[in-house]
Each structure stands twice: as structure tokens, then as C-alpha cells.
Amino acid sequence: MTFPGGTSVTRLSVYSGTCHDGLEGGTPHLHTASTEAYVVIGGSGALQTLDVHGFRETPLSAGSTVWFTPGTIHRAINRGGLEVVVVMQNAGLPEAGDAVMTFPPEVVADAARYREAATLPVGEGVEDAVRRRRDLAVEGFLRLAESLSDGDPGPLQAFYDSAVALVRPAVAGWRRTWEDTVARETQHTAEVLDALERGDGTHLHSATLLEAPPEARWGMCGRLRTHDVAHPQVRSPLP
To answer: Do 126 and 218 contact (CB within 8 A), yes or no?
Structure first.
């Protein structure tokens, strides 16, 4: 009963407010295990990306659909009311640990310093903390972009190495998430196809409607309306 294909969705209102480079937008980061997609439903902006091929800026407007694989450092730029539906692999793993923000190397290389910089307070002061976190990541992003522009991929490789070290302790838990969502859904689809090939439609009697109401929270790129697809509400109970 997971979301189709073991994916997840979130509604994203990209942050406004100017960073120290004069641009408005979200916190640059990458994902280490999951591909993520942006389906733009309103406003305008751009997606800035860094990878081994260098820097790229892709315009975004209503109807734009882009996606990026693990290792693609991405930064959402808001040029006016940018609203996005984010589609994620692995039951929302990109919002549950599979992200490393582009803090400067001395922070990313130190797990304790990274956690301190990445963690938001509960209650008062969260908006200021969101801005500080974003600005620190933008600082690191710009340094990586400058190094790549100068033909030096070394800092990017060092960032990748630090990112892997940061997430490595969580991988066992991620594997369980993957097994309970993507792998299980894949096996279920294989069983359904086998049944249909035999002319067996028994599974159709288990038709179910499910819903995952939105929950508002602060994200890396903007204000989020997330959906807990791991614990949906059953609207059509199984017989």
C-alpha cells in the first residue's frame, strides 16, 4: 500500500529572501542514493546544478519537469513565486536523511560540526536558523563552483568523499526502507503480471483508496507540505 512505485511526493514553495550572492532560493545540497524530480506548477526560477561536468543553470517555469540523479548538487533559485511538486525515489528518502548540504569543507568533513549546522531548532528562532543554514551552504556551493570553473575537480571529489562518510552509518536503515517500499512494490507488480498472464484477476477484489494528508514543515529548499506515504489513511477498507 505504498505510494506508486515506492516513490513519494512533496509540495515545495521555494524560499524567497536574498542570499549573500544576491539570489533568492533554497539550500544547495545533493542526494547520495536517490533520484529526485521537480515538476513546476507555478512561478518562475531556475535550477542551478554542479557535478563533475561543471556548473549549469536550467530555467524553470510552470510545466517544467527536470530530474537529477545522486551526486547532482542542486540549488533552487526563486525568481517569483516558484512552486514545485517534488517526486522522490525510495519513499521520500531524500527528505529523510539522503541529503548532504554544501557547507564549507571544514564543516562537511566533521560529522559533529555538520550536524550542528544542519539541525534546526524547535520553536522560536527557526526562521533565522533556516537562513543561516542556507547561507552557509551557498558559501560552500560557490566555492565548489569556482573550483570547477578553474578546472580543479579536487574540492568536489573531497565533498563527495565527506558526503559518503556522513551518510554511511544510516545506510542499513535506508536498505530496510528500500526493501519495504521499492523492492516490495516491484515484487508485487511481478506477481500481478504473472496472475494476469494466467488470466487471474483475483487481486482486483482488493482495490483500495488511500490518502496521505499534507503536513507543513521547513525544508532545505523552501516551505514543504509533505505526505507520510508510509502511514496512509485507508479510505476504502479491504474486505
So the answer is: yes
Q: Which residues contact 137 (CB under 8 A, 6 or more apart)?
A: 27, 28, 29, 101, 102, 103
Q: pTM of the prediction? A: 0.92
Cβ–Cβ < 8 Å for 15, 26: yes
Residue 217 CA to residue 239 CA, distance in Å, equals: 35
Q: Computed over its alpha carbons, how large is the radius of gyration of the chain?
A: 20
Nine-digit cell string for 132: 543561516
DSSP letter assigned to residue 119: P
b/e code 93-113 from CB counts within 10 Å (16+ = b): bbbbbbbbbbbbeebbbeeee
pLDDT of 235 above 90: no
Residue pLDDT, tens place only, 191-218: 999 999 999 999 999 888 999 999 999 9
